[in-house]
Amino acid sequence: MGWKGGPVTLTLLGWRREVAGLYAAARTATDPERGWRTWRDGRDELFAGHPDSPLEESARAAFRGLPYSGYDPALRFEAVLEPAGPRRLEVPTADDGTVLLDRIGTVALDGRDGDQVGRLDVWWLAGYGGGVFLPLRDGTAGSTTYGGGRYLLDTVKGADLGGDGTRLVVDLNFAYHPSCTYDPRWSCPLAPEGNRVSTPVPAGEQLPPGGWY
Residue 181 and residue 188: Cα distance in Å, rounded? Predict the structure, then answer.
């Protein structure tokens, strides 16, 4: 995710600290839904008042909170990271050039209650420091969610719900829009082919009526 509208300042570091703190609170919450509510409320505060909010000033003035679907516990998975053949992608991000992604495996998001999202590729950001990246473009894209998809995990930015040496916690209720959803001056890597499913996922962050711009 890159900003094309001006110089980066240390307030962006503050934004990342705040986001990382929200995910840390969600990981340690004894009740996943309570952790999700803490995360959701914290994001609303950041979007409304932080100087690095992806909303432009006119949108902040009218901001009343990000729209979400209600929490569905059946859409939280402790997914085994399964092997997949090596693959490298160079994902274009407009003026920022490309982001290099290396596939490290796949996760199957098929719930016991019949919730079948499908299998998604899991990526490692190949730049300095790296991090797990798990985007999703589902059947709601272009209607109730952003056409380019949403993010589930982006650990280099603090979006990390936990796991262990073989599993990742993937909670579809935490699906959130990349910053380019709110303002075209942001540039974001979008979901590649292995992260696109036709199944609608009516969970997580939604678009407001008419979109953001």
Answer: 9
User: What backbone torsions phi and psi does residue 31 show, to the nearest 5 degrees?
Assistant: -115, 115
| Host domain of residue 96 | 2-195
Let me know: does 170 contact 86? Beta carbons within 8 Å: no
pTM over 0.85: yes
Q: What is d(CA 131, CA 121) in angstroms, rounded to the nearest whole number?
A: 14
Contact 18, 50 (CB under 8 A): yes
Residues in contact with 45: Cβ distance below 8 Å, sequence separation at least 6, in sequence order: none
Q: Does residue 60 sit in helix, strand or coil?
A: helix
- C-alpha distances (whole Å) from 110 to each of 71, 121, 158, 162, 170 are 17, 14, 25, 19, 11
pLDDT tens digits for range 82-130: 999 999 999 876 555 688 999 999 999 986 565 679 999 999 999 888 9
Is there a domain that residue 202 lies in? no
| Domain tally, the chain | 1
